[in-house]
Protein 1
Amino acid sequence: MERVALLRYGEIHLKGLNRPYFERALYNNIVRALEPYEGVTVRKAEGRYYVENIGDNPRVFDSIAKVFGIISFSPALKVEKDIISIQKAAEMLLRQAIEGRSAAQEGPFTFKVESRRSDKSFYLNSMELSRKVGGYLLKRIPNLKVDVHNPMVMVNIEVREWAYVYCQTIPGAGGMPVGTNGKAVLLLSGGIDSPVAGWMIAKRGVEITAVHYHSFPYTSERSKEKVIELCRILSQYCGEIKLHVVPFTKIQQELYQKCPHNMLTILMRRFMMRIAEMVAHREGAKALVTGESLGQVASQTLESLCATNDAVSMPVFRPLIGMDKIEIMDLAKRIGTYETSILPYEDCCTVFVPKHPVTRPKLEKVREAEKLVEGEKLIEEALANIEVLNVKG
């Protein structure tokens, strides 16, 4: 009897002739996620991936839950394809479930057995197998009752090349395997929104390369460390992230000295987008990703977003555009970035901020204001001094 995990994938089933490409990518991502666990192996069979040699390490399941492309998984017992082994495995798992029942719960413990045979040569059909295992459990465990409609525990049996027995199905991260839908550059500020945007676009199979704008000495080393930590958390879902730390102080100072202060925010955003686009060209990325949400701040009105888009020719994806702050915060908590994002270290978006930023910028006026600084020279200088870090969780 061996402890394993059965992994299920979702959208990949809908793929046609290129389905093997997605399956290989998912396999590689699972293997990468489980690299830290010595001896653990991954095997693919029809419609499933199997993680074997997991022992009693619960952290393996945490890592599996963060692999995009997996819709659910079940810790299971792998046994020989004979009725006695299956019955014993079912009894062990059901007793564990009963032991975990709340003391406040009274009355008989209800269960149901559901069986599935991929191996049609097995001598019992699914109904017969369920009946035999259910009858065995009723004889062996007191105060037990069958409930086929709303059982407390479902005992699942799958007969394949081996028999697998499990009582728990855990939701996976869903989405598509990272790397199957190209690469994009994420503008990562260190706040709550942009890490969530990166997570959402990675969930659709996009490989993430991050760009962060650092305004030393107005922003501290701690603010940079905070962004590195956010990349570390995201990398648990996305794999290793290449982080580009762009020196942004000189650009902000030039804009502050020479341009209308009410346009500083939108002008800074345009410079950020241009630099990110150039990084994207270097990295072979095809799009930019931001954490903007419509109407959240002055730079996120429709007019401001149009003025920002005008600075680049590359597609700009905004996965959070229709979400409110509460929804974004809830998702940040779920994926584990929230507590790091709220650390009180300033980022470049909080320095050189105008008291009264324009909320409906006129594009022509923005373009005119931009001509007051030597934009190309400033951007070239910033690009020449980028610090690149490879971050892995």
Protein 2
Amino acid sequence: MHIPDGFLDPWVLAGCFVLAAAAIGFSSWRLNGRLDDARVPLLGVVSAGIFAAQMLNWPIPGGTSAHFVGGAFAAILLGPYLGCLAMASVVVVQAFVFGDGGVLALGANLLNMAVVDVFVGYALFRALVGLGETIAAFVAGWGAITVSAAAVGLQAGLSSTFAYDLATTLTVMTAGHAVLGLVEGLITVLVVRYLLDVRPDLVLGLTGPNTGGDRPEEATV
């Protein structure tokens, strides 16, 4: 999922950077004045947890590996705007400190993991939560990572510097992550289900998005 430098054309990098900056800036604006002493530590804990979870890789055929991304989980737990900022902090640290994803490709990686993964996951969760939190969390985790992978395939396929055409990159990335996404969905539902059982007050995504992730007792749905 992390795109290294040298895989995308400059115009694709620029476009992704603009879109990612706009979405992250909008999320920051929506949260202006809403972050209190209770939410800031939660933001840090969720970001650190996702960062650690992304370090755990499982091997897949072909000599590469996959890992939990966590955008849908962040959105369900924190709401879409705070979830976007949490994922953005993870992706930025990974790029500048650990070299996981290129610095020049940072805009693309932010767009895919901190924007598309988060907002698609949140939209799916909210659309399906009437069927039950378990179903909604699983589909959110699976669907968000699959759409994010399609975005990566689109960016790579549109870039002349990448060796494969658009049809190939879209097919490989989407189909591959539609299968790998089953693990993402399973992990998402297990963690969300556990938190709903022991600390439902921490699952801020159960409320509407207009509050930017307010706690259930103080939100307007």
Protein 3
Amino acid sequence: MTDLKLTKGNIALAEGALQAGCRYYFGYPITPQNDIPEYLARQLPKLGGTFIPAESEIASINMVMGAAAAGKRAMTSSSGPGISLMQEALSYMAGSDTPCVVVNIMRCGPGLGGISPTQGDYSQAVHGGGHGDYHNIVLAPASVQEMFDLTIKAFELADKYRNPAMVIADAMIGQFQEPCRLTPKEPVVLPEKPWALTGRKGRTPQLIKSLYLGDGEQEAHNMLLVRKYREIQDNEVMCEEWHLDDAEVMIIAFGTPSRVAKTAIIQARAQGIKVGLLRPLTVFPFPSKQVYEHSSRIPNVLVVEMNTGQMLRDVQIAAHKDARIHFYGRPGGGFPYPEDVLRELKKAMEGAYERSL
């Protein structure tokens, strides 16, 4: 029997990074994610790793880029304002096929905002805050166990596709404690990286770049990226489907709101209301096929987020044309309680509204 240990979400994520083989961390402090660098500062030296408290978020992500280009599993973590400062380097790494893992324990904004739980950085993570045609792979844990497991998965996907992978979580998941299995479900395998810049002695020189000045070179490179993103979309979607078989209303939520939605669904079913949940674990690639298929037979869809409707747009694009899509959002640190969700799904069934903030 696997031992479970009461663990804070941020610590589970940091331990997941270590067990994924990450030995290089660079970061600048910001709440509510400071548990991550504090833990790694203690643990990495014991494993022969490198921990550098950088002078800024810009320095952090560029140090990650250097270590990743050398073939090492490298990571940084921050929160919304810090992630904003990293966008140029993230675009560069996406354009140069350089894998890394970036963690965003979100704080509410815009601007400096606060440390209350929020999902205000969905669009920044999923649709890219930087310049050019690119995508991050984005995973959205909803429990302490998933903070551990999906961080290992993020390193695996980053290396498999040579692409930045981001883990986004609200502060509640980062800060609360749950029993957690702190061992990987499967053995971690570190892949060979023949493309890495490790010194040219004994081989021909290699180059990692995102600058293509030859006639048609940039377009050709962008089309290679498009094919990579399509492969990721086809093969790497992860989502949870819960009580959808007989549902008359489908709630779509990720992170903490998905946990709240499950309580609301239990309350609704006790009242004879058939409700189910679709929970994306990957928000890029988004489970568009699953949203379309379920919304083609479930007449009402309720999207619940802790923002003003950032994932809502992806649901509207993916859903069947006849689906009635409703929204309940709590931005800026507001929190949806099960009773609120239950009230909103009843209103959705009555067709009383389409958007509630």
